[in-house]
Amino acid sequence: MATQILLIGKPHSGKTTFIGQLCARVDANSSALKLYKAIENRTPIIEATRALAKGEEVKTTPTDKSTVIYLPLQNGEVKIDLDCPDYGGEQVNHIIENREVESKWADSIKQSENWILFIKPSDLTSSYDLSNKTIKPEVLENGNGNSEEYSVSDQSSFIELLQILLHTKGQDSHFKNSTTKLTVVLTCWDELENTTTPKEELKKILPLLLNFIETNWIESKVNILGLSSLGFSLKKQGNKIKYQESGSENFGYMLKSDGVKDNDITQLILEAV
Amino acid sequence: MAGKCNLPECPAPEAGCHLGKDDCTQCENFVVEAVEKKIKKEKAADLKKSSIGWSGQAFTTDELALVSSRTSPILIGVVGKADAGKTTFLAMLYTLLLSGKKLKDYNFAGTKTILGWDGLYHRLKFKKGGVAFPQPTPVTSNRLYHLALRNEEQQLKDVLFADASGEVFSLWSVNRNDDNADNARWIYSNSNAFILFIDCEALLVDKNAAKKEVMLIARQLTHDLKDRPVIAVWSKTDKKDEVLPSIKDTLKTELQDLFSNYKEIEISNFLEPGPDELVHINNLAVVDWLLENIMVPSAPDLSLDEIVSDDLFINYKGK
User: Fold this and answer.
1) Would you tell me which residues 103-162 of chain B have a C-beta closer than 8 angstroms to some C-beta of chain A?
2) Could you please report the per-residue DSSP string of A229-268?
3) What is the bridge-based pairing of β-strands A100-102 and B74-79?
4) For A115-135, what is each residue's pLDDT tens digit?
5) pLDDT grade, residue A92 (50/70/90)?
6) Residue A143: its pLDDT value, please?
């Protein structure tokens, strides 16, 4: 029986670009992974594949509908099914806001022992608060109880998402999770500056989420990786031409947990199982 | 157009209605059924959802079972008059955790009230040069904010902070049977420990009158306290230097005389330039001290007086 990987990410977290590049590599037979049967339905990613071949940035997947993608992958004798029950990512927001897990999602959560969570650091909202900015109280203009429209902070929503996933999985909170492997992938790594290892980066941007993960998973079941599916920005004309001439499958890289770069992004799937 | 005409000779919907109708669905022979059925079916599948079971907002006392079913939660009563900084303290606590600060002996294992906490954090953010600060807790509310913590031995501890309106504590401090002080009574009888707020700004403005308010609450805390820990938190300490020394000193002494399992600490919501202690360290130290003192098992009284008797049976001490 094939190993199931569940790929989760909010809208615009880089899932489409990764899967587009993953398919390009697998199709070109130039990576550690192969398909063990043809992909039944490429519709959700066909536009991405075509855009990448032209050296164009991938348009974000519409989030208003729940689109499913399923890739039957193989590494040697090991079969790995990559399951993304909510390709647009809208369900992730829906789960937190509406406090319900759709049955299709719940089934995927229960069946998979390998979860990949995509987080795009450059999209996170940063804000100043009283704990990180020095200001004299007399200088501070008191908002008198008025607050701008509230939306849940990125960090709290990732923590709540993982709490809901663990709850749906039936995890006993008295114990650390030792069965379901969690791989956190920090995407668009090439856009980040002054980076060291992916774990240090996660600690810098979402420290409470990292603390939550390390408190609820045993060490061997957590993996924190970096990913640049494109390798560089395709906004520059020169980079675009590279894609057109060499093929998109020759670009992109990932960072393993120790910070070592690997040019085969399909290794990410093998790291996650 | 999905659907079908009942007349076999009609090419609709692939081509126009042979009876000349512009819209074939308007023809009495045309049946639109497939689409509607399909949509209904999908909806039925969508409705099959499993509810998560917690709202993410602060608990009411009726929702305690969400954590009491898995551990015996520790309840910390946040006590003080209105506008003393009780809710802002909780907001700062979560804000500090979000920024990567940690409790001394515990890691963060989650919270069932994350949206409640996050709403408090939102009110400490800078927006257009101002900070909203949490709104006063309504008189009828008794909000419970939850933290799941795991210690070094990997044991799970559920901690709840009870945040009621300051007004009910003022009523309770005067008459602990006051009809409108239910929330204060509930917090008093169920809490494992207390944070008593001393508002430096009120001491500065209202002087002895403010001190008396603090002492009223403090004295009421003692009536059935047993050995439950109390930490007095001097809030808004950026104003403390301006408070009359006689008021500060006598209040300090009187509080020390009232409690045995006791400590006091100063906190602020405004960072000091350079190394900061009042915000980054002391807000968390409040919780550290309470947890340390709640977790201490009561000293077992195992020393027995030696029994002297002529009875051989009673004197028998084994081989």
Assistant:
1) 107-111, 114-115, 117-119, 121-133, 135, 148, 150, 154, 156
2) SSSS-TTSHHHHHHHHHH-GGG--EEE-TTS-EES-TTHH
3) unpaired
4) 999 999 999 988 888 888 877
5) confident
6) 58
pLDDT tens digit sequence for A17-76: 999 999 999 998 888 899 999 998 888 888 888 999 899 888 877 665 557 788 999 999
Tokens of A4: 């199931």
- Break chain B into its structural domains and give their ranges: 61-294
B21 half-sphere exposure, CB direction, 13 A CA radius: 15
A211 to B156: CB separation less than 8 angstroms, yes or no: no
The two structure tokens encoding residue B150: 């795991």
Question: Is a pLDDT exceeding 70 seen at residue A201?
Answer: yes
Query: What's this model's pTM, rounded to 2 decimal places?
Result: 0.86
* Alpha-carbon gap, residue B301 to B296, rounded angstroms: 15
3-state helix, strand, coil in chain B (%, to 5): 40, 20, 40
CA distance A105 to A168: 10
Query: What is the maximum alpha-carbon separation in chain A?
Result: 68
User: Secondary structure of A131-146 in the HEC alphabet?
Assistant: CCCCCCCCCCEECCCC
Judged by CB atoms closer than 8 Å, whether chains meet at A145 and B270 is answered as no
Provide the ipTM: 0.93
DSSP string, A100-127: EEEHHHHHHHHH-SEEEEEE-GGGS---
Distance CA(A115)–CA(A183), nearest Å, equals 6
The topology (CATH level 3) of B61-294 is Rossmann fold (3.40.50)
How large is the average pLDDT for residues B60-69?
Answer: 93
Distance CA(A152)–CA(A90), nearest Å, equals: 15
